[in-house]
């Protein structure tokens, strides 16, 4: 076994690898960018090496700097985690050329699976079922349109170098094909430097079921399936293992196909064979098709670990160190059911706009397995993936795992950044999902109910008002008012919560909180860091946290945030009413389509901001004339920066 390894990654996966390495007595080196100095993965490792500035191109993608860091610290092998350099065959070549071991497959296996068209052709040859379609070299639009006709609509156009759902276009009718082809090809070119596409049959209401494989270069086995059908724009949201409705017959057929795929490329290490499955009439042994292979450890690997008892990172280290596969196929068993939900800093009510912020308050339930790379007080920066944590639960059966997931989501508390937690909780409570009726369209069909902003109940607002006043009075520092205002002896006080003014009357543990004509009467006691609340109708536990000019009230499994008045704020903000377009988050201005003096319609695109690895088009909040531009292409802007100023159309 290795004495020391370097982890070429950050965040939760770096922390995950460190945990197993430490248990195995292997020392760890991590690398970090300037934005990550002092972050969790850095302080957890035995050693850490700075590799550059915050942007990934200057840090986590700098292969040379990473290999150099391994050599200077005496690490013998490099674990790539996922993302970044994990599926980059040139990196594997460079690691091996430096005399180090890459903890993962060979460069040639990655190359074989790197392009969707070549991978599909290879799999077809190996006897693995693939989605019907055209994956050949010809790219003339007329030829491809003919292929699409032959396949039969609807079809899916995929950039062959694509990933993460990029460069994919669904086409329902032949007349839409040329435009869709042009845009998929151009997205392929701009995102991956490759405009070639393949065409395949679009499976309606499909399921995404993938098989975990493991190879040692000679032999390969599988560790059963995961169902990742709950997706939002082709991004996985909740994953589970095993797959609902799976039969032994279909499992054996999918497992055998996946092992065949892994053996066809002499695979070594952890990999995933993704299948698209027609689940419209139950799972069938002839109803699944190879989509692609991910030649790395997968984000959702914990659900497989939970049902098999295998530590996949341990297996990765063992196989990379030259050991044979630690287990035989016939010794692997499924025990129980596991679910994983991905907690992100993003705003579901605003089209899942990625968010940034300091995680002022962060608490996870002890009952769930939490995979995270952040601690309370850490910052979600615009430079990397905004994932906060993966919340993993296990049960004897699906119903038990699911009720544990619901409870774990309810007990997770985050303040300081908007998150998708409420969306996850609603998804976990979704009736169809509870019945195991999953397909990749479920989230989109019920998007409105799953993402509608939740209005704070009057009691939450009342608790926020009390917290802002330091009430109930006795207790810890969290509750003492910061400006020295003494409440004792006052029976009545006023406090601003968000846009409203609350009038609070106090008598011992009893409070009356009025927002205008609306009055809430409640009794509140402190119980440690929680509150026991009696609102007249019921008694329940809540929590109110003051942080960075805000109060967040956690009750009934939801978080309700309220702004406290900022003593420095000046009145008469000209930005109100949509005269200014502000940057919703820190980012890089990619392009500006607005020109000074031009009149624009409401909803017209004004500029494109790149942040959190995604592009966001900012649109005109109303019709008007562009009066001024606050930033140009290439400018790095802060959250709240004025990007465009509008004047009324008629001057
Ligand atoms: P990427 O590499 O961009 O993630 P994939 O080929 O893995 O692209 O596909 C991503 C998702 O798109 C799948 O999980 C599935 O939901 C959907 N998808 C892919 N191929 C098809 C198809 N032929 N029919 C229907 N949906 C598909």
Explain what this protein looks like in three dimensions.
By secondary structure, the protein is of the alpha+beta class. The chain folds into six domains: 4-103, Rossmann fold, CATH 3.40.50; 132-201, Dna Ligase, domain 1 (2-Layer Sandwich), CATH 3.30.1490; 206-335, 2-Layer Sandwich (D-amino Acid Aminotransferase, Chain A, domain 1); 343-453, 2-Layer Sandwich (D-amino Acid Aminotransferase, Chain A, domain 1); 458-563, Glycoprotein, Type 4 Pilin, CATH 3.30.700; 580-647, RNA polymerase II/Efflux pump adaptor protein, barrel-sandwich hybrid domain (OB fold (Dihydrolipoamide Acetyltransferase, E2P)). The chain has 17 helices and 39 strands. Residues 476-490 and 567-577 have low confidence and may be disordered. Adenosine-5'-diphosphate binds at residues 131, 156, 158, 162-166, 168, 200-203, 206, 208, 231, 234, 274, 276, 291-292, 440.
